[in-house]
# Entry
Amino acid sequence: MKPRHHYVISFIFLTSVICCSSDSSVSKNADEETISEEPSTDNNSNFTSVVEENGQLRILNGVLVNNNNAPVQLRGMSFFWSQWIGKYYTEETVKWLKNDWQCTVVRAAMAVDEDNGYLTNPEVEKQKVFTVIDAAIANGLYVIVDWHSHHAEDYIEEAKTFFAEVSKKYGDVPNIIYEPYNEPLDVSWTTVLKPYHETIIAEIRKNDPDNLIICGTRTWSQRVDEVIGNEINDSNVAYTLHYYAATHKQELRTLVKNAIDNNIPLFVTEFGVSEASGDGSIDSIEAQTWWNFLDDNNISWCNWSIADKEELSAALKPNASTTGSWPLIMLTSSGKMVREELKKKNPKY
Ligand code: IDC
# Structure
């Protein structure tokens, strides 16, 4: 590992301790922590992977930081619904996404209640996720384990069982990021979602005290502003923001900015350059505006999706190989745009 020079800014957390007694003890800031100014992306480093370079991730003062307290911004790809297009959940695809696309994170979107998801075929669906997790660990990528449901509050016991198993199996490596609820619909943050997340987090924390957990918010993970003043009491939690650039624009960014200004840590576990349907049209100007916004605020992202379905958000053309090695001609417009952005912004390991 080569030495790194950190220019350190001090951030003072919580309350400063003011010494006001006649006691001669030294007055000091008890909760002072530091965030390094240096971004963690260093193309000339000798690190072989993003996880080797950054290790354990955590939220510090609303920002995702690495094991040196330097801000980290992950960028990568989400797989598609596992029960429908699970054929890309392969080790070779993960490897290609690291080596050719320069992804630093991938997301396994495990179907739950829809069609033949986990509720019907727990072993089959789980195995697909484990394949992606194992490949991510082998290749030094971060991996998000997404409970891909719109009704997770209806299947709490199943979610507890699943996240208990995953955290038991993988809780001791820094690669794993938990996402217990892809996209809630119009249900209350306070009375439904927060208690749901707290239940699943308690299950995860029995086995994994420290990895990042990203929590879905009301209306397709957009109302991150509703978390302000009503955060989950856990030291390593972020909140999910989803957007589709041809549908969600400045109005959503304004709402999101409010959350950011209130120190709410955000992670875009899914976005599209298309409309929210996953199809319709692509808005490349808005896509770029969103990317700038995420960069300005150090927010990590995964793009929807690694799939060969005939829809504009899919990154691959029909019948693209399930073992990576995709020539450019097998990528869609979305696939090419996103790959270019990844290669421009992410470090090459
Ligand atoms: C979409 C798929 C589409 C499929 C649909 C089923 O792209 O082919 O028919 O799911 O519901 C989300 C969801 C994600 C959606 C995606 C695009 O998390 O499951 O995938 N989207 O509609 N939220 C906003 C958009």
About this structure: The radius of gyration is 20 Å. Residues 182-183, 220, 242, 244, 270, 276-278, 304, 309, 311, 313 surround IDC (CB under 6 Å). The longest helix spans residues 189-207. The first strand starts at residue 8 and ends at 12.
